[in-house]
């Protein structure tokens, strides 16, 4: 797979990363998959996307944890 065909995705913060604020998983590929209810770009729900701006870092890290779990489960 070359760079042109490789899926674009943000990576979660590394354990112990103290960068603040926690960066958004958005990759500017914004389309909700009707079957899963997830954005095909960032793997977030509409509620997670809408709430991101007002979330504390702890909540953002929880969302990142769910994104990682979704990726591992093969959600797309």
Quote the average pLDDT.
Answer: 87
Radius of gyration, in angstroms, nearest whole number: 13 Å
Helical run tally: 2
Strand content: under 5%
Which residues form runs of ≥5 with pLDDT under 50? none
- Termini Cα gap: 18 Å
Give the number of DSSP strands.
Answer: 0
Shape: globular
Question: Structural class, from helix and strand content?
Answer: mainly alpha
Portion of residues within helices: 25-40%
Major beta-sheet overview: none
Listing every helix as H and every strand as E from the N terminus to the C terminus, the arrangement reads HH
Topology:
Layout: H1 46-51, H2 57-73
Characterization of the model:
The chain has 76 residues and is mostly helical. The protein has two helices and no strands.
């Amino acid at each position: 797979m070359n760079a042109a065909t490789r899926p674009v995705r943000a990576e979660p913060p590394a354990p112990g990363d103290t960068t603040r604020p926690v960066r958004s998983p958005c990759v500017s590929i914004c389309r909700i998959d009707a079957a899963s209810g997830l954005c095909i770009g960032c793997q977030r729900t509409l509620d997670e996307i809408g709430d991101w701006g007002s979330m504390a870092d702890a909540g953002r890290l929880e969302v990142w944890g769910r994104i990682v779990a979704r990726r591992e489960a093969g959600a797309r």
